[in-house]
Design a protein that fits this description.
With 148 residues, the protein is an alpha/beta fold. It has five helices and five strands. Helix 3 links the parallel strand 3 and strand 4.
């Protein structure tokens, strides 16, 4: 059975050829999808039922008011440089790196101002280094205890 996802695609229609390729890919995957040029074009029910929202880079300059309906949803902003990637790779990136849209003053995603590892909120930069140092110290304690 196909994995049915509900995906909303938000774009300013700058790249209709790419949109057609993405539409064909989503249809081939058996996903339900809708395309709109504004977040207001989606009903509240459609947004609530969506599993994922893909934003094109041309929506980057949209103001908070125009993107406010998708606040709290998992989104991924497709940058211009990524538009040349194979469609399957675009979705792999999007699902792996999607973040919750907070709708802050800069239309940002969760934790943009924090210094985090790979842009994720869960692991702060330097946490891995600290874990390695603690592990080495524990190893030394066991080695010293073994030889004495």
């Amino acid at each position: 059975m196909l994995n049915t996802k509900k995906i909303l695609l938000l774009t300013n229609e700058q790249n209709s050829a790419l949109i057609e390729k993405i539409s064909a890919y989503m249809q081939a995957q058996g996903w339900q999808y809708q395309i709109a040029t504004s977040a207001q074009d989606f009903s509240q029910q459609e947004i609530a039922q969506a599993d994922f929202i893909l934003l094109f880079s041309d929506t980057k300059n949209a103001d908070n008011q125009s993107l406010s309906p998708i606040k709290g949803k998992v989104c991924y902003r497709l940058e211009k440089k990524q538009e040349s990637l194979p469609i399957a790779e675009i979705f792999d990136l999007a699902f792996a790196q999607g973040e919750i849209f907070t709708g802050g003053a800069t239309t940002s995603f969760a934790c943009p101002e924090e210094d985090t590892h790979l842009g994720k909120c869960a692991v702060k930069k330097g946490a891995h280094r600290t874990a390695i140092i603690v592990s080495i110290l524990i190893l030394f304690v066991f080695l010293i205890g073994y030889f004495y």
